[in-house]
Design brief:
Layout lengths: L1 H21 L6 H29 L4 E4 L1 H21 L3 H29 L3 E5 L2 E7 H26 L8 H23 L1 H4 L4 H25 L11 H4 L3 H4 L4 H11 L5 H8 L3 H15 L4 H14 L1
Antiparallel strand pairs: 1-3, 2-3
Helix pairs in contact: 1-2, 1-5, 2-3, 3-4, 4-5, 4-6, 4-8, 6-8, 12-13
Length: about 325
């Protein structure tokens, strides 16, 4: 069973790959490899260790959870998401999606747990200073079998919405949404920890509240991505692809124009650009980041698309 749930963890890794690696892949080779390893292995290793803990501490086919274990899980989530943010190339965008997924985890745990509660009663007892409750180990495996496909689907949807957002969204947009997601996560975590109060409510009420909160989270993320998406102008026919490059060239420095020339020659990688201009990779990154901010794109291929069309016309 442990081998099965270890492999099941890779379903969650597929979702993490889509949202944290595919659209946030760093340019450096070492950082890229480290990020890929963390994205791929974090969930399989996590549930493998949890399964080992269950085998060593489970009593009579049941596992005990308390508030300390819950907070430990949240701390692990925060550390993992912080790693994704620091290793990726687009940290601003990943801050929002990390806050969203952290809150999504808490709400999904509540919803799925109470669907399982409808199948088999959840028993609890007070052992100061924490509330301890037990759940059948089989339900523990059913939970992950349900959770990971839902989580992966959520990541695919988030990646689909985020791929057209600005690489440097305005502070006034991403900061409030990050705070909203973190606040929601804190409220749901507190709600989840108070099992005595939750058991006074009906299963239908708990499931409905969890579903409504999930819908609210998805709406907030979608609303955020629309606010910071690439501007679309009917007169310009998609600004990021067909806008006259002279609009940008007049705001570029001499060195930035040199970088564009090298990119138009077919050199898309940072090291290739650095070698052609006889400058360091860090200097290339500095100039490209400034150019990304000015043009609203996030990679060298997009820069090539903008300026190659204008060059071919002239």
């Amino acid at each position: 069973m442990i081998r099965f749930i270890f492999l099941l963890g890779f379903i969650g890794s597929i979702g993490l790959y889509q949202v944290f690696y595919k659209i946030n892949r760093p340019e450096g080779r070492i950082r890229s490899i480290v990020l890929l390893l963390v994205v791929t292995l974090i969930y399989p290793v996590q549930i493998f260790l949890e399964s080992m803990y269950i085998q060593n501490h489970g009593a009579h086919g049941a596992i005990e959870y308390n508030l300390s274990l819950l907070l430990t899980g949240i701390l692990v989530d925060v550390c993992v998401y912080a790693t994704f943010i620091l290793l990726g190339k687009n940290r601003t965008r990943m801050i929002v999606v990390s806050a969203f997924l952290c809150c999504f985890n808490r709400v999904t745990i509540v919803t799925i747990t109470y669907f399982l509660y409808a199948i088999a009663s959840l028993q609890y007892e007070v052992k100061a200073p924490f509330l301890i409750y037990t759940i059948n180990i089989n339900l523990y495996y059913i939970f992950y079998f349900t959770f990971f496909p839902v989580y992966a689907g959520c990541c695919f949807l988030a990646a689909f919405w985020l791929r057209d957002t600005l690489i440097k969204p305005p502070f006034k947009h991403y900061f409030p949404f990050t705070i909203l997601f973190i606040f929601s996560s804190s409220v749901v975590t507190y709600w989840y920890s108070d099992m005595r109060f939750m058991q006074t409510l009906s299963f239908l009420a708990i499931a409905l509240m969890g579903f409504l909160v999930l819908c609210l989270l998805f709406f907030m993320l979608y609303f955020y991505t629309r606010l910071v998406s690439y501007p679309k102008n009917s007169d310009a026919s998609s600004t990021k692809n067909t806008i006259d490059s002279s609009f940008y060239l007049q705001n570029f420095s001499k060195r930035e124009l040199d970088v564009i020339r090298v990119i138009l020659d077919g050199n898309y990688k940072y090291k290739e650009i650095a070698a052609n201009l006889n400058i360091s990779v860090y200097t290339v990154k500095f100039h490209l980041n400034r150019m990304y901010k000015k043009t609203g794109v996030s990679d060298t291929l997009s820069l090539f698309s903008i300026f190659s069309k204008n060059t071919s016309k002239s």
